[in-house]
Amino acid sequence: MVINTSQMALLLLLCLLGVASASTSNEESFIGVNIGTALSDMPSPTQVVALLKAQNIRHVRLYDADRAMLTALANTGIHVTISVPNDQILGIGQSNATAANWVSRNVIAHVPATNITAIAVGSEVLTTLPNAAPVLVSALKFIYSALVAANLDAQIKVSTPHSSSIILDSFPPSQAFFNRTWNPVMIPLLKFLQSTGSHLMLNAYPYYDYIQANGVIPLDYALFQPLQPNKEAVDANTLLHYTNVFDALVDASYFAMSELNFTNVPVVVTETGWPSKGDSNEPDATTDNANTYNSNLIRHVLNNTGTPKHPGIAVSTFIYELYNEDSRPGPVSEKNWGLFDENGVPTYILHLTSAGTVLANDTANQTFCVAKEGADPKLLQAALDWACGPGRVDCSPMLQGKPCYEPDNVIAHATFAFNSYYQRMAKSLGACDFKGVAAITTTDPSHGSCVVLGSVGRNGTFTNTTSLAPSSNSTTTSGCPVPYSAPVGAGSFTASLIMCVLVVSMMAL
């Protein structure tokens, strides 16, 4: 895998954003990510969680309640929204026992180790599965009753995500109302959300509003770009000024709820984003626009700006989505909403355009090269041999009894070797590839007394990243230090494989 400097820079920003999000109180807004799984080579749950932890992403939404994913998320502290898939709503909405069974299997079996904080019952049911609409509220109530019985109702909220298309006449926002066809569902739903302290879940996509407006909506208005005062959209009824489509959509949902006499149900945006690639007839699905939209969105949300109708009121938001999904049907844009590809390579740098600052600049220069989880051990060993030989990495720290001997497995040793080479090559393009078995991370793989190159040591200074080449008298003709030649038939895994062994844990889980 080859990663350029721009791509690796995204890693630090997401970490910074995760820190900012994690440091907020329960009343402040957060940025989360949706985790879709329509990838031909979907990373394992362990790899997904490693990426989340490396970026300090503290809020995620799953489109199901996959047992392996929930198990991998255990003991991470990450806030998890799980989902009842649409094809299960009819059964759950017609049977309290079925709902209780679902909660038992998918919630009670995982808490408290896994920090489940919300359940999304279906996704855009009114617009994608209207035949389930009559039992939607029953499904929420049955799920909630099961949570009450398990004494989990205070910890876990229950709601259902809606497409913004159920809001009609959405601009000016003060005129917005829900499609009245759905009043028999929306009114009891809002009563339920109000009585349980839950949020209205809204999927808001300014990208689609923009492309469907046929030029009426300026691109800058869709992308949160700064506007001249005379370019702002003004709601003539309230005189509120709108500088972006996102705020207008959120406020339209508030006004639509007010039209039904509900004024105290908060909104959480369960999906929003911008595609980074599109077909020829999707000219605005570009990396630059995706970069701009998500960067400005993150800044807007984490500043707790709120909306013109409710300034300072948190609008927590989940970006759609973590990975590009190459297996999704439809146009090219459908496959390219992700912040990362399947290898965890960032799609683009996030930045704050209005401030002119690229927060992704790695000013500490702290990126590391590690062995990729799940890589073929034989390929790792071959790459390890090359790093300690022709790659001229100093492999002496992994000698038995040295600080970087333990743990003695090929992943740990390869991580140390790969990172040493990467640092010596000044983190140049392609220096962390090793025929696809290595990856860039911002997670320092140092542990205990083993401090890797490029790490900040205990005294706050960087470890030396020069003079890494082993001396000529320390190597055999193969280029590997003599002490790493293991006897045939040695008992441990490493003893049978290792010639150039090094240590460091793979991304700490």
UniProtKB/TrEMBL annotation:
Under what name is this protein listed? glucan endo-1,3-beta-D-glucosidase
Q: Which reaction is catalysed here?
A: Hydrolysis of (1->3)-beta-D-glucosidic linkages in (1->3)-beta-D-glucans
Q: Which InterPro entries match?
A: GH (IPR017853), Glyco_hydro_17 (IPR000490), Glyco_hydro_17_plant (IPR044965), X8 (IPR012946)
Subcellular locations according to the entry = Cell membrane
Give the coiled coil ranges. Answer: none
Which top EC class applies here? hydrolase
- The protein's superkingdom reads Eukaryota
Quote the PANTHER family the UniProt record gives.
Answer: GLUCAN ENDO-1,3-BETA-GLUCOSIDASE BG1-RELATED-RELATED (PTHR32227)
- Residue ranges occupied by any X8 domain in the UniProt entry: 367-452
An example GO biological process term is: carbohydrate metabolic process
What is stated as this protein's family in its record? Belongs to the glycosyl hydrolase 17 family.
Q: What is its EC number?
A: 3.2.1.39
Question: What are the UniProt keywords, alphabetically?
Answer: Cell membrane, Disulfide bond, Glycoprotein, Glycosidase, GPI-anchor, Hydrolase, Lipoprotein, Membrane, Plant defense, Signal
Q: Kindly list the GO CC terms recorded for this protein.
A: plasma membrane; plasmodesma; side of membrane
Annotated signal sequence is 1-22
Q: How does it sit in the membrane?
A: Lipid-anchor; GPI-anchor
> Which GO molecular function, any one, fits this protein according to its record?
glucan endo-1,3-beta-D-glucosidase activity
Organism of origin: Linum tenue
